[in-house]
Amino acid sequence: MMGRIGRIDFRAALLLIPVLLAERPAHAVDPFEIQVYDGTSDAPGTGGVELHVNEVADGVRTAPPPEIPPHHTAHLTLEPSYGVLAFWELGFYLQSALRPDGGYDFAGVKLRSKLVTPPGWRTSWRLGANVEVSYLPARYEAERWGAELRPIAAWEDARWLFAVNPILDFSLGGGGGLPSFEPAALALIKVHDVVSLGLEYYAGLGPIDAPASWRDQQHNIYQVINLQPVAGFDLNLGVGEGLTAGSNGLTAKAILGYGFAWRRRRPAP
Question: Do 77 and 134 contact (CB within 8 A), yes or no?
């Protein structure tokens, strides 16, 4: 009798495994940097700074404690960068957030290293990879420590730009498990070398060994416009809509960038 009960319990546990896996939520798409990397980098000895501002006008209203839901939260990120070599760029992020109740939070730091194919490698193709390590307060990432591996593939000519980033997001806070898969992509058409128009796509599918259900996955499409650099400044503007119940319904984003160069001082004679 006991053996039979044990076999029944074991079979019931097996039947529950796919249900439990299906209910694992997707890892949230990074709200602080809504951007697709196109395989370019700062030239050696030059640098830049970007200000990312993202406002979740209509977002998910629940989150697992101690995290706070993104609804009506504004995310602000300052991102300086520096070109070390023709194929290597370093950067970091200083993140902050304005909560719906008016409170203002420090929201973490990230360090990144980006490797790309140098200029002239191919006429139209660019390849690369970006690696990040992050520390965020618990209300913005329950496990606090994380890492990201972002492969980069891009194709560009005088008229079009396409790029794909199949991102893997790792938890380093002790939660374990395989990384979350968060693909991103863009398609742009250029208009008279002044602006470019197109679409950006961002998704959070959950752990690569057990993707979340379609309802819980995040899928967002952004309509974007980019103003080409003028006097060192460039601008990216976009409005994104969510395609699933697990996505933020409406998000507005802006990225203001400025590029500059440092002059190396010659040693005194």
Answer: no
pLDDT tens, 12-39?
Answer: 433 433 433 334 445 678 999 999 999 9
Name the nearest CA neighbour of 63 among 140, 144, 171, 135: 140
Strand, coil or helix: 12? helix
User: How many Å apart are CA 251 and CA 221, to the nearest integer?
Assistant: 10
- How far apart (Å, rounded) are the C-alpha atoms in residues 163 and 14? 41
User: 44 near 84, Cβ under 8 Å?
Assistant: yes
Query: Where do the domains of the chain lie?
Result: 2-261
**Residue 185 DSSP label:** E
Model pTM score: 0.87
Q: What share of the chain is helix, strand, coil (3-state, %, to 5)?
A: 10, 55, 40
Tens-digit pLDDT profile for residues 175-226: 667 999 999 999 999 998 899 999 999 999 999 999 999 999 999 999 999 9
* Residues 97 and 107: beta-carbon distance below 8 Å: yes
Residue 133: which residues within 8 A CB-CB, separation 6 or more? Answer: 110, 111, 112, 145, 146, 147, 172
Question: 2-261 has which CATH code?
Answer: 2.40.160.40
